[in-house]
Amino acid sequence: MSELRDLYQEVILDHSRSPRNFGHHQPSNRQAKGNNPLCGDKFTVYVLVEDGIVKDLSFEGRGCAISTASASLMTELLKGRTEDDAQAMFERFHAVVTGEKGEELDDGLDKLNVLAGVRGYPMRVKCATLAWHTLKAALKQTDETVVTE
Amino acid sequence: MADTASAIKAARRFDAAAIRGQFPILGTRCHGKPLTFLDSAASAQKPQVVIDAVAETYEGQYANIHRGVYDLSERTSAAFEAVRGKARGLINAAHDDEIIFTSGTTESINLVAQSWGRANLGPGDEVLITEMEHHSNIVPWQLLRDQTGFTLKVAPFDDHGVLIMETFEKSLSERTKLVCVTQLSNALGTILPVREITTMAHAAGALVLVDGAQGIPHLATDVRALDCDFYAFSGHKLYGPSGIGVLYGKADLLAHMPPWKGGGDMIASVTFEKTEFAAPPHRFEAGTPNIAGTIGMGAAIDWFQGLDLDGLAAHEDDLLAYGTACLSEVPGLRIIGTAPDKAAVISFVLDTAHPHDIGTVLDSQGVAVRAGHHCAQPVMDHFDVAATVRASFGAYSSRDDIDTLVSALDQVRELFG
Ligand SMILES: Cc1ncc(COP(=O)(O)O)c(C=O)c1O
Q1: Which residue has the higher pLDDT, A117 or B369?
Q2: Does residue B90 fall inside a structural domain?
Q3: Judgement on whether residues B20 and B59 belong to the same structural domain of the protein
Q4: Is the minimum distance from the CB of B104 to ligand 1 under 6 angstroms?
Q5: Which has more pLDDT, A14 or B272?
Q6: CB–CB of A8 and B415 under 8 A?
Q7: What does the alpha-carbon distance between residue B70 and residue B75 come to, in Å, rounded to a whole number?
Q8: How many domains does chain B have?
């Protein structure tokens, strides 16, 4: 049970029960859908990017506790950061959950370290990164009207 | 269905513990816990005789088949070809030549699509499938539809997971050329009334393909009694190796079907001007097949047919009834698929935890279940769930496995409330 508690820390359980920034209630100018074909989990991530800044970030869809908590934490922590910053965070987060170099996050992102527990569960890494891959796709979107870079 | 008294007698003869002892993997541990394997619908474990048959092929009786004049090749060819007879016997086909070896159910269905379907289906024609098909009985038809322009229709099931026969019958017309149905749903456990379906389909002038991937290990199958035109199954769900399976087709249909893959072993003669194709079944078996796997499947069929099959059916019915009763008592648990005619599969969801999380927690207790959409996303959509947890049984499964599952579910509730 203790190994499971490492995976399912209280922060994860909390975010999965009451995800933050859930639902598409605010204006956005980029979005992407992501799904995990293995389990059928689906998310849509909505982003409002202005002047290269992620002004707003929300998501909807359904997934397991890991993917939902990861999406929720992501929306909380990346709001207000620059697009480049968000991209860089993706890479660092990926390193954390795959366990490369025992990476740990700091500078306000340390909350994400709770997801490091998925390292021991290779099948679950995809859950932890689903929303992040979806965000990455949304940020890459080029067919938008307001180009601010 | 055997009457109750004879079923009880049969269950006594069927010795589940002795059968379990024949499966080496069931003695192993996972995460330090004894393995509780409840994912036989994905692939069954293998008894020692099957493992030995594959090993002995490589150790003592292996060469390419149908080619060598030397003794070793002839012996391998004979062992390989003998499996056709075993498979014929298993499903009570009329002739060995009606048994085509494929890599499994998926390839068997693709064979029918690309050979029979490509030659016989076009604009204005219809193929009717059911809402509970596995992706392997959906996607090959969509691919072919996009190539040849027929219409693909879907017959729905009700909220218990029972095919709605009135709607099914109404969906049939003189445009219907082929009906493709699963014998047993892998996601819901529903047993389909295949005999009734073939009667209705034939009355409309359509052929019937039965996906027997799940049916073959659990339901007595007689393709002549079912009167289906094609029947597909996989060796690996019948306690045999993976990568080998069967397509049965009625001889008069196979005789007129074009090859779908070209290569060695499927020809009578080849010149650059013209190739004469071999007769069925070899016409459909291009290239070197899964030789040891086929021989292993033969051993699995022998092993399976050596079981007390009435006893096996009674044992699996008992597990289904016991499992359904125990799981129904778990707070917040909902069983998905509640057809009166069911076999060997219990799919469920919990109100507090996602199937993936349940799967991970159960795994930590050594309990192997499938968590996902079971390659049947339309079934998940029907019940408006992304996924389910599925516990499925085989000959070696026991009430203890179910008890372990239920107590492991306590851990899920402890964690997720
Ligand atoms: C109902 C059904 N049809 C088809 C298949 C495909 O079988 P295979 O993967 O062996 O080709 C499966 C296997 O999961 C199944 O359950």
Answers
A1: B369
A2: yes
A3: no
A4: yes
A5: A14
A6: yes
A7: 9
A8: 2
Q: Is B214 in the pocket of ligand 1 (CB under 6 A)?
A: yes
pLDDT (tens digit, 9 = 90+) per residue, B262-310? 988 888 888 888 888 999 999 999 999 999 999 999 999 999 999 999 9
Active-site residue B326, yes or no? no
Inter-chain touch B360–A4, beta carbons under 8 Å: yes
Together in a domain, B326 and B293: no
DSSP secondary structure letters along B93-115: -S-GGGEEEESSHHHHHHHHIII
- Tell me: the pLDDT tens digits for B92-136? 999 999 999 999 999 999 999 999 999 999 999 999 999 999 999
Alpha carbon separation from A34 to B98, B113, B173 (Å, rounded): 45, 31, 40
Last residue of a domain, one of B305, B331, B346: B305
Residue type at position B94: A
What pLDDT is attached to residue A1? 67
- Quick check: B55 pLDDT over 70? yes
Beta-strand pair B207-211/B245-249: unpaired
CATH number assigned to the domain comprising residue B378: 3.90.1150.10
Which positions in chain B touch A128 (Cβ < 8 Å)? Answer: none
Do B295 and B312 belong together in one domain?
no
CATH number at residue B134: 3.40.640.10
Q: What pLDDT score does B267 carry?
A: 85
Distance from the Cα of A98 to chain B's closest Cα (Å) equals 17
pTM for this predicted structure: 0.93
Residues in chain A: 149
Does residue B45 lie in a domain region? no
Residue to substitute in B136, B163, B247, B373 for testing ligand 1 pocket (most ligand atoms within 8 angstroms of CB): B136
Can you give the pLDDT at residue B7?
52
Average pLDDT for residues B373-396, to the nearest whole number? 95
- The verdict on B23 and B82 lying in the same domain is no
B384 shares a domain with B244: no
pLDDT value of residue B102: 98
| Structural domain that includes position B271 | 51-305
Domains of chain A plus CATH, in order, are 2-147 (3.90.1010.10)
CA-to-CA dists, residue B322 to A65, B311, B314, B316, B318, angstroms:
30, 16, 12, 10, 6
Contact at 8 Å (CB) between A48 and A107? no
Supply the DSSP symbol for A31: E
Domain boundary among B270, B289, B305: B305
- Asked if B414 is an interface residue toward chain A (Cβ–Cβ < 8 A), one would say yes
